[in-house]
Design brief:
Strand order of the largest sheet: 3-2-4-1-5-6
Structural class: alpha/beta
Mean pLDDT: 95
CATH topology: Rossmann fold
Order of helices and strands: EHEHEHEHEEH
Number of domains: 1
Number of strands: 6
Strand content: 15-25%
Largest sheet: 6 strands, mixed
Shape: globular
């Protein structure tokens, strides 16, 4: 069996407007995106051994909203804040059960680059979007790539303003 890394990009966030990037919060739309992710993951029966999040406010908010439906408490993981890549992903997966699923919440361009480094596939991970990669012996296979609208559909929320 292979371990799975599920990468969730934070939801839509407020503009910087002179505020430090680390303090930017989710917009109402971002909150709806994050809530829809949790509902979609619940609807497909996804279970996770662990949820890790960037310590940036918008990522923590996304993780908390998405994980609420899954009965998980996200743990802050500083490497997800900036520069997260293949080696970091392998460290996260190291020591987990062979069939473990780990959810990580973070940022672009790190997540698209991580998917590329693991699978060779180029993806465009939208705000509030989700990618899943199966990883075995350091090599990965893209399992899914979902945009916020598709996640909202899975959640039964339509996709109107997501």
């Amino acid at each position: 069996m292979a371990r799975e890394l599920w990468l969730l990009r934070h939801g839509d966030a407020e503009p910087g407007d002179g505020k430090p990037d680390e303090e930017r919060r989710l917009t109402d739309r971002g909150e709806r995106q994050a809530t829809a992710v949790g509902a979609a993951l619940e609807a497909i029966g996804a279970e996770f051994a662990l949820a890790l999040t960037s310590p940036r406010v918008r990522a923590v908010q996304t993780a908390q909203l998405a994980c609420r439906r899954l009965g998980l408490e996200p743990v802050e993981h500083p490497p997800l804040s900036d520069g997260f890549g293949r080696d970091d992903a392998l460290v996260v997966l190291e020591g987990q059960d062979d069939d473990a699923r780990i959810l990580v919440v973070g940022h672009e361009p790190d997540f698209s680059q991580t998917v590329y480094e693991l699978t060779g596939g180029r993806v465009d991970l939208k705000k509030g979007g989700l990618a899943a990669v199966s990883v075995k012996s350091g090599e990965g296979e893209l399992l899914l790539l979902l945009r916020p609208r598709e996640l909202a559909g899975l959640a039964g929320a339509g996709g109107g303003d997501i």
